[in-house]
Each structure stands twice: as C-alpha cells, then as structure tokens.
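Thanks for the sequence, V.! I ran DNA-binding transcriptional LysR family regulator right away. Repeating your input here for the record:
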Amino acid sequence: MLRALADHGTVTAAAQALHLTPSAVSQQLAALESEVGHELLRRRGRRVSLTAAGELLVRHANAVAAELERAQATLAAFGSGATGRVEVGSFASAITQVVAPALAALRVSAPDVTLRVRDVEGHASVPLLLDGEIDLAITEEYRLRTDDRRLTRFPLYTEPFDVLLPPVHPLAGRAEVDLADLADDDWVVTLPGNPVRDVVQLACEQAGFAPRITHTSDDFRATGALVRAGAGVALVPRNAVRGVPVRGTAPLRRVVAAVRRGSEDHPLIGLVRNALLAAVGQPARTYSES
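Predicted structure:
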C-alpha cells in the first residue's frame, strides 16, 4: 500500500489501483506507521507525500517485491514454464508492428502460452505494469525513468517521425520537408501528457519556432484524417501513419519492452520477449545477454 501511495500520490488513487476502499488503505497505512514507529506520510490536502522514513521503507519494499518476482520466476522455471498467460500492454502501432506477429508465432511455437493484449498508450502502460495489472509494457524509452530500479527493459525498435501534410499544402509532393518551413501552419498534436507531444514541441523548438496547436488527438488515424481535411500539419511516428520524411535529423521514437525487475527470467516472460524480438528481426536472447 505504501508503494502504491508513492506511485499515485493520493489515498483514493492508491485504493483504486489496489482494488480496495480508501478507508481500508488509510487504516492499513496508519497501522504501518504505528508498527514501524515513524511518521511515513506527510499530508497536504488530498495529496500525500512520503517523509524521509517513508521513502526509505519504500526502497526496501521495492527490493522485497523484486525478490518475490524472482521467486515466482524460479518456481516457474522449476516446471516446464511453457504453460500460462502473459498480459501485455502496448500502444496501437506497436501492436500492429510487433505484438500481433509475436502472438501469431507463439500460437505455433508455444500453443499453451496465452498472450492477452491491452491497447494502452505508452505513457499509461508503465503505471499498469507497476500496479501488477499487466506483465509486460511496450512503451517509449523516454517515458521510463532511468533511475527507476523497479523495471527491467529491453529495446525493440526505433522509428523516425514523419510530417503529415494536407493534399493542397504548398509543400505536398516534396521528397523531404524542413520543419522550419511549417512555422506558420496550424498543427494537429497529441493531448498533454502524451510523450509524442513533447517530441513534436521539442523538434519544432529546435527548428526555431513554437507550433501553433489548433487540434488535438491521441489517435493517429484521427490525426491523419484531420490533416487530410486541411486542418493543419502534424509530426507522427512513421509506423503509426507514414508521411513525408523530415529533412536532416528526424526526431526518433525508441520503443522498448519493460517488465518488473525480478520477473525478467520468468520462462513465460522469456518466451514472449524472444517472440517480440523475432518480430522485429532481432535474435532471441537470455536476460543475461540483454
């Protein structure tokens, strides 16, 4: 419960993640404070932050959780490891690019392994992973905190961003487009909180301007439709919607798979990991090689 509170910031959000009532979480946290003999929480309105003692205890809780994951992996390896279910969270284009081919391959090579897929934006998959709602998250590398030792990740593929232009745009038909030439256009971008929005804004900033955001959507098919309708221009990952290459150095999206630390050697995770790697043309590997 303390870990969930540290992740979500409020008792209500932590309770939702744990499928408990807020009062039950509050009571257990109060009991924990009494048991350890230290104040663990600092309350500021609805939000709660951890004291130094609380942060210390969370670090130990993370280590314990990783050991439990390793214990489950060891027990699974003791058996065949070829039967079970893995829950995967992935954004839509990675489902098309990687997850669906991996699922098809596993149905042949490991028919007793069930892969259950949840369509979820990359920035939302990591909280689900940490909450135990999914077993593997496919997300963008820049959404993972490099200092978060609760996660183990392995790279899948890298894709550039392309420019989407309306059919009647003056630059339509060009082989490449310089972002600086789009400074006076209206832009279609993702919603705040979506990492693609940050990439677009940084790329435009590096090109010398701030994009004039007129329309927003997290669905790249909708973005493409808006652009075709003449609503503006867009910059999107190539596997989501193919457009016109950026002249010079294009922004990149590095796609990775992440699992909870300690579960990386679970045989089911290993089977899924290697199926994902095969789908992008990488050789299978053990975790020690990754």
